[in-house]
Design brief:
single chain, alpha+beta, four-stranded antiparallel beta sheet, 4 strands
């Protein structure tokens, strides 16, 4: 789920019900988000996405075991921290090259 969608999705990952953080991820993006979430104390689960016929795709789905977790709310409410102690901004979450002091409503993508 991207930050521009506030929909809260629950799905089973590795046999555990999880709140979906994002789907359709590359390995690099999944590692980036996993590091942020684990630093903030969430148990992270991921697995390969499956096509409708059941075959595994190259992309990943990433979730946390806290089924009340919503990444949009957590990021915009400044509830997630980076490893350097700074707040995770929408630009940082989306891995945009943006000025950290620029307000999120002024970032154009």
């Amino acid at each position: 789920m991207a930050l521009n969608k506030g929909k809260h999705i629950i799905q089973e990952i590795q046999g555990i019900r999880c709140s979906i953080v994002e789907a359709g991820l590359t390995d690099e993006r999944a590692r980036f988000l996993e590091a942020i979430l684990q630093h903030n104390g969430y148990e992270v689960k991921s697995e390969k996405e499956k096509a409708k016929d059941g075959t595994a795709l190259e992309t990943l789905v990433l979730g946390v075991t806290d089924i009340l977790f919503n990444p949009t709310i957590r990021v915009y409410a400044h509830k997630l921290l980076r490893k350097d102690g700074q707040v995770v901004t929408p630009a940082y979450w989306n891995q945009w090259d943006a000025d950290a002091d620029l307000p999120y409503w002024m970032v154009v993508r």
